[in-house]
Design a protein that fits this description.
The chain has 750 residues and is of the alpha+beta class. The protein contains 29 helices and 23 strands. Strands 12, 13, 14, 15, 16, 17 and 18 form a seven-stranded mixed sheet that branches. The longest helix is centred in the middle third of the chain and has 55 residues.
Length: 750
């Protein structure tokens, strides 16, 4: 017995209706025009013919062309939808048949016919289950020529024998664009190197358009399967005859219909489905909403309606949605389509969104509490210096003729003003940090100079309390680095300032900077430690130490003025620099802050070590490994580099690159130009694996990222995984040459 697939059953229904029309000497155009008057005569009460008619109506509303024709020598046309008629500029099926000679042979441009028929035969021979695809020309009613895409499938129909059903779309504009872009590319290829950037931009645009076009074709192909992607079960029912027919079944609804897609009583199906699958708490609700009377009432006001409910599959609770659509006459509601789809992901998203909102509300409440505490503290901390300023100003006026007293009062006014200014500065600093997307800007700087500047700035404060600041940089080998100087200064300034503030007179503040280890690509790991002999921090407060405006004790209790934002700023900067910060403390003994940062060491410029031309000559006598999956990019990059005199070997993914390096001898490749986004293995993972090779010489090969990924985070990730540099496409040739020379020089190859 023939197994009824979805596509087979759908086409068979259509062919049966078309055959019936032929037997009754009625064409489809005539039926569509006089459908209500001819319904009983044509359909004869047949649900299959009624369903086929609805399917044909659906096909006529499709945005793309749809064609069915005999798979014999004559290739006679059986059916074409309205969209296909529009492509040929025909108003009726009769006009279309006359234009094409009612044959697929007359449908296709005579110069393309033999080639596309041969291609279709070969594709069918290769796989009888896949769609075949061809492109060819057609001649429209006005004599104009258009290109079309043809996605077809060969099947055997019990009604009319061997047939092809085909999805057709107008591809003229797409082909023109492709030909034009190819011509432009060939033309631009011959131009000078400075125009290469424009060409690559056009190629990127072309790739995106091609992806969108392919996605549109895939969406059209899915139309024949109705709602099969979104809906696990699709059923057609007639409420008046109490019959329901399956179109697509899930593992659950197969229990009601079996493997042969049998007709069932609609009322029986609803009752059995609800009692079998619907959660006990919702059975009566679902049953009531699927009774014919309820359905008719809902569909009188709307074309469709839906509701959500739960099912119980063994011990698992799942969420489903049932959508019911009126596909018959709006005046006499009888023919409906029922679609069932899973809602687990949407319900889960709603639950997650609810949790996120609750967490956001809790965070907002905590922030409000923290800021209220801050404002309470600040009200006191700001009024204290202001009160001193106003008070000493009044005293100075009264003692205007006593220069000694006035001078003393002015000193105290200045001290209070500085205290007040420090409060304002820190509040503004944390507000700016929270409101802006801070970035790390690397410049040449020296750690010793930064430390000296910070100590010089804080020394008056420490001297006033007779606090000794001790600096230990014995283990600092490379003090010349590339880093954000101002942010490093803020780290030292806030940590050391905090240590002085919370250390009793006569105490000590120890600052040490150590270089823990050197890493590849001229990076090193540095440890910064600030230790004091101050009042310490309780274990309970350590979990809140980096929260904005958090202070363990207010000013009145502790006698220390502050905003509680300095450590928040430090934590924010350390996170920006991908570092870590730890704190340990003992009450009444002191506190230690330890920061670990990965910083880049300054290199000696190439100009001082070797001549650029000598290095490039050396590279030209070696082989560069090019790792790139896009064929167009390979051709362009090969043309550029070989045109400059370089020798290349190319592979198409990261795994092949790792294998090529592993199987090579030291010196076979001078460096690697590595794409990032590739199949099988991306460029970052490939670089990590190369750096882990047992052969140290192979593992140390220079690797330069050459990618369309241009974000700062992409560049950072490339450096972190072990690459020497990250360059973006389109290629900047002078920058590429400088970078290759620098990488070869830094690795000591010349």
């Amino acid at each position: 017995m023939k197994e009824y697939t979805t596509e087979y059953g759908l086409i068979e229904y259509m062919l049966t209706l078309l055959q019936t029309l032929d037997q009754k000497h009625t064409d489809l155009d005539h039926l569509m025009e006089y459908e209500r008057n001819m319904e009983e005569e044509i359909f004869g009460g047949s649900q299959e013919l009624q369903m086929a008619y609805e399917v044909i109506r659906f096909m006529d509303e499709m945005p793309g062309g749809f064609l069915i024709y005999h798979a014999d020598d004559a290739e006679e046309i059986i059916y074409a939808n309205k969209a296909l008629l529009r492509i040929f500029q025909c108003d009726t099926m009769m006009e279309f048949r006359e234009l094409t000679g009612n044959s697929f042979r007359g449908f296709v441009h005579h110069e393309d016919l033999n080639a596309i028929e041969q291609s279709i035969r070969e594709q069918i021979a290769a796989s009888q289950y896949d769609l075949d695809y061809v492109e060819y020309r057609i001649i429209r009613k006005d004599g104009s020529i258009r290109w079309v895409d043809d996605y077809g499938h060969y099947i055997h129909s019990d009604a009319v024998g061997d047939i092809f059903y085909v999805f057709i779309g107008d591809a003229t504009e797409k082909r023109k664009r492709a030909l034009l872009e190819k011509a432009n590319w060939m033309k631009e290829k011959k131009k000078e190197e400075q125009k290469m950037q424009k060409l690559m931009d056009e190629i990127e645009v072309y790739d995106q358009e091609r992806k969108l076009i392919n996605q549109e074709h895939l969406r059209r192909l899915e139309v024949i399967k109705g709602l099969s992607v979104n809906y696990e079960t699709i059923l057609y029912a007639d409420l008046e005859t109490d019959q329901i027919l399956p179109y697509r079944l899930s593992s659950r609804t197969k229990v009601q219909f079996g493997e042969k897609y049998q007709k069932r009583s609609f009322l029986w199906y609803v009752e059995d489905y609800v009692r079998t699958w619907v959660h006990p708490e919702e059975q009566e609700i679902v049953l009531g909403r699927t009774l014919p009377e309820y359905i008719k009432k809902e569909l009188e006001e709307n074309k469709t309606y839906y509701f959500n409910y739960r099912i119980q599959d063994e011990d698992e609770i799942q969420y489903l949605q049932l959508r019911i659509v009126n596909v018959g006459s709006p005046d006499r509601i009888s023919q409906i389509v029922l679609g069932y789809r899973g809602m687990d992901e949407e319900v889960q998203r709603e639950i997650e969104q609810k949790q996120m909102l609750e967490e956001a509300l809790n965070s907002a409440n905590l922030a409000i509490v923290a800021k209220n505490t801050f404002l309470s503290n600040m009200s006191h901390d700001m009024r204290t210096p202001l009160n001193a300023i106003f008070g000493y100003t009044t005293l100075a006026r009264k003692s205007i003729h006593d220069s000694g007293a006035v001078s003393n009062y002015l000193d105290k006014i200045e001290e209070s003003s500085r205290q007040f200014l420090e409060l304002i500065d820190k509040v503004l600093e944390i507000s700016w940090t929270e409101a802006n997307d801070s970035r790390i800007t690397e410049t040449e700087c020296n750690l010793n100079d930064i430390l000296a500047d910070v100590i010089r700035h804080l020394d008056p404060q420490a001297s006033k309390k007779e606090i000794q600041i001790n600096l230990d940089t014995v283990s600092l080998e490379d003090s010349n680095i590339l880093a954000d100087r101002e942010k490093l200064r803020q780290i030292f300034l806030h940590l050391t300032g905090n240590a002085i503030t919370y250390t009793r007179p006569g105490g000590n503040v120890d600052i040490s900077v150590k270089e823990l280890e050197k890493q590849i690509n001229h990076y090193a790991v540095y440890q910064i430690q600030v230790k004091d002999t101050g009042i310490g921090i309780s274990k309970e407060f350590l979990d809140h130490i980096f929260e904005p405006f958090a202070r363990e004790k207010n000013t009145t209790y502790s006698g220390v003025h502050g905003t509680g934002v300095g450590l928040t700023i430090v934590k924010h900067i350390v996170d920006l620099m991908d570092g870590t910060i730890e704190v340990s403390s003992v009450v009444d003994e002191g506190t230690v802050f330890t920061i670990t940062l990965r910083l880049r060491i300054q290199n000696k410029p190439i100009e001082e070590a070797a001549d650029m031309d000598v290095i490039l000559d050396y590279i030209m006598n070696q082989t560069i490994l090019l790792v790139e999956d896009n064929e167009i990019n390979v051709e362009i990059e090969t043309e550029i580099l070989q045109g400059l005199g370089f020798q290349l070997k190319s592979v198409s993914d990261g795994r092949m690159a790792v294998d090529a390096v592993r199987q090579s001898e030291p010196g076979d490749f001078v460096l690697i130009l590595m794409d990032i986004q590739m199949p099988v293995m991306d460029g970052w993972q490939a670089t990590r694996e190369i750096r882990r090779l047992e052969n140290a010489e192979l593992a140390d090969i220079p690797i330069i990222a050459l990618s369309a990924d241009a974000f700062e985070s992409d560049e950072k990730k490339s450096i972190q995984c072990g690459m020497d540099a990250h360059l973006t496409k389109p290629i900047d040739i002078p920058l590429l040459l400088d970078t290759m020379a620098a990488a070869v020089h830094d690795h000591g190859l010349i």
